Amino acid sequence: MALDAQLNSLGFAKAPADTRVIVAMSGGVDSSVVAAELAAEGYDVVGITLQLYDHGAALAKKGACCAGRDIHDARRVAETMGFPHYVLDYENTFREAVIDEFADSYLAGATPVPCIRCNERVKFRDLLATAKDLDADCMATGHYIRRAAGAAGPELHQAADPARDQSYFLFSTTSEQLDYLRFPLGGLATKAETRALAAKHGLSVADKPDSQDICFVPNGDYASVIEKLRPGAADPGEIVHADGQVLGTHRGVIHYTVGQRRGLGIGGLEEPLYVVKLDVETRRVVVGPKEMLSTRIVPVREINWLGDAPFTSQDEWHLGVKVRSTRPPREAVIRPVSETEAEVELVVAEEGVSPGQACVFYAPEGPRVFGGGWIHRG
User: Fold this and answer.
1) Cβ(6)–Cβ(19) under 8 Å?
2) Out of 65, 115, 118, 359, which one is annotated catalytic?
3) End-to-end Cα, the chain, rounded Å
4) Is 215 considered catalytic here?
5) Does residue 65 carry a catalytic annotation?
6) Using one digit for the tens of pLDDT, what is the confidence trace for 72-99?
7) What is the rounded distance in angstroms from the CA atom of residue 234 to the CA atom of residue 251?
8) DSSP state of 270
9) Residues 6 or more apart from 60 whose CB is under 8 A from it?
10) Which residue out of 65, 115, 215, 359 is catalytically annotated?
């Protein structure tokens, strides 16, 4: 085979030095390793970090992403490996596309997943457009997921390491985006391999802890963030049993989530009770027995379909689905209503299915991801 017909490690028929790659750098070890490895292979690497929320307020916050210390860490990696690095101010975009919807969804009684919206509306839309404006051949990220060649084009597959797989958070990646994206870490067996690569390159972030919280929610305290964004959102109301009996008062609907048992302040009852519904309009927290949390029928909308055949070409799709990131895929029947809506029937009922969460579709066997959508009532 002629040299110019051979594909480099990113799938292009040209030398790495002639292949420009934009690397989305959050400042953590994962994206840092991606940038360092590609630079070491000789690619024309350009690192870009998005400043997503207040830089000054974030300086003292540990374990965040895309602000404060992390911007500094990304810059140091670029200096170590000798490639250019830029910081783009996306605070307004992030606020409008992610934070405002998070607040509104939470106040409406949903359980939003803002990390998915950030990937969908900021990183894989606006940043990807910037990468194309810079004449990059592709954009690489530190996500643990795989892009595989398929008969109908690139496919999305789960990461080789099930413990690190991020497919739940990337289900809304479109086929067009997938054609442009690269995920170099998806095939690694463990996170230890990533850290070993960071150490090999002498990166200062080799031992940096992983971020745990949503970047703009310090210590997982959703309620304090909502109160700041939407003053008055923490108005008290009644805790009501599903049969209509008033059991007590609460300190604001925003302090509760569907499926919650502890911290309700209604002890001394014969049966354990769980939050089964949040009625925002009447400011009521509705509680009931555990069996009320179980559901088999899950309406889903805003579907991003990654199958080879059109979504509506079949009356039913027999796939696995995840309704929470921490749960394994469960057997389900997906019945299309339109190209972007469906009714998902779970073969075995799930507890705590909540509006605002994602419902992600997986192959019955094997690692392929078939997209997914958003649950709009539980």
Assistant:
1) no
2) 118
3) 56
4) yes
5) no
6) 999 999 999 999 999 999 888 898 888 8
7) 7
8) S
9) 68
10) 215
